[in-house]
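Dataset card, provenance and construction

Sequences and ligand SMILES were collected as paired inputs. For each pair, a complete structure of the chain with the small molecule in place was predicted and serialized as structure tokens. The example below shows a pair involving flavin-adenine dinucleotide. Curators did not alter the output after generation; any descriptive sentences attached to a record were derived from the structure itself.
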Amino acid sequence: MDFKLTEDQKMVIDGAKKFAEKELAPNVEELDAKQEPNIPALKALGELGYLGMTVPEEYGGTGFGAVAYAGVMIELSKVDAGTAVGVSVQNSLVNDAITMFGSEEQKKSYLPKLATGEWLGCFSLTEAGAGSDPGSLRATAVRDGATFLLNGTKNFTTNGAFADIIIAFFSTDREKGSKGISAFIITKDTPGFAVGKHENKLGIRTSSTTEMVFTDCRIPAANLLGQENRGLSIALGTLDCGRIGIAAQAVGIAEAALEETVRYAKQRVQFGKPLAELEALQFMIADMAVDIEVARTMLYRAAWMKDSGAQRFTKESAIAKLFASEMSHRVCHKALQIHGGYGFMKDYKVERLYRDQRITEIYEGTSEIQRLVIARSLLAD
Ligand SMILES: Cc1cc2nc3c(=O)[nH]c(=O)nc-3n(C[C@H](O)[C@H](O)[C@H](O)COP(=O)(O)OP(=O)(O)OC[C@H]3O[C@@H](n4cnc5c(N)ncnc54)[C@H](O)[C@@H]3O)c2cc1C
């Protein structure tokens, strides 16, 4: 067993750390307060190759793979988890979906632009009445000659406000229910498409979350992604990849919370000595570090399985996402507690980390859904 990162992986992860410190850190508090995405940073990350990490080189990506991507997501999330999720959506939910399920023509026409950040993308599965149960979605795609006519509203779409490319899921055969869903690639300038409500959120406020509205939106049949009526498998296969990104986001937020806490505990004096000398708090800090180590190991294992290409990693990515997100909750809770009243104030970074962490337990499948995925894969045979 080899736990070492290669020199290339170390270099690309270190580059993300430097980028985050230089380009994200100076703006994150202001953008969080204004609830504004850092689009210039996303574009710059694209130019540096960070939006095409799992795209093969022949389609314009860097092909660094999931392990390096996980490390990059940790570094970006430590500083700005909202911008980091934009990176995750592009790499996992958009690029991986097209790489795994797209036709040769689709890969050639979309991936080079997505991998370099010339185009930004989003993934629109959820609807008001279809969250944990995407099989019950109501939006429709009706075939009409060599086109499909799209109607319906998607909600809670990350990157929705500025995405050039939308991967969205529609019912193509209502009678078949979850087996009658298809995936499509839509460009933002298609008549009949509009960005709807912009959500006002508790955390990851430097990400954009919007409704996506389709009204008699006509697209070429060639924009079908994968086979007709196989959309749910495409969504679930893509989310296996996405959960690696979210697990990494959770680890990054927790690492930042631990670092803030160590710094604070050494400097804050009560009862005549630094908090760091109180054994009760030392134990909390030790537990935080152990929790993070376990999650990081699980995360890299799932990422390594994806890179090996030889095995399914549905269960492992669900385990990594479930553990890492709940771990991040525990760690951020302790971090805020050790900061006392100051942790509740916006002047201290742990206040934002505490808010940003919460979403990792919800999107790309709630913790309850991860448990269902894990149990189903154990009980399948
Ligand atoms: C900030 C943000 C960004 C998002 N980005 C995207 C995106 O880019 N693309 C996209 O398609 N979606 C996105 N989502 C949607 C997200 O994936 C869903 O919110 C999530 O899957 C949960 O669905 P729901 O909110 O409808 O909750 P519900 O499905 O209504 O669940 C409510 C509660 O019931 C529980 N529950 C539901 N079913 C079961 C069950 N069978 N067993 C046990 N418990 C169950 C859930 O775990 C949860 O606790 C985003 C959401 C947010 C908040």
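Derived descriptions for this record:
DSSP finds ten helices and ten strands in the chain.
Residues 43 and 118 are 7 Å apart (CA to CA).
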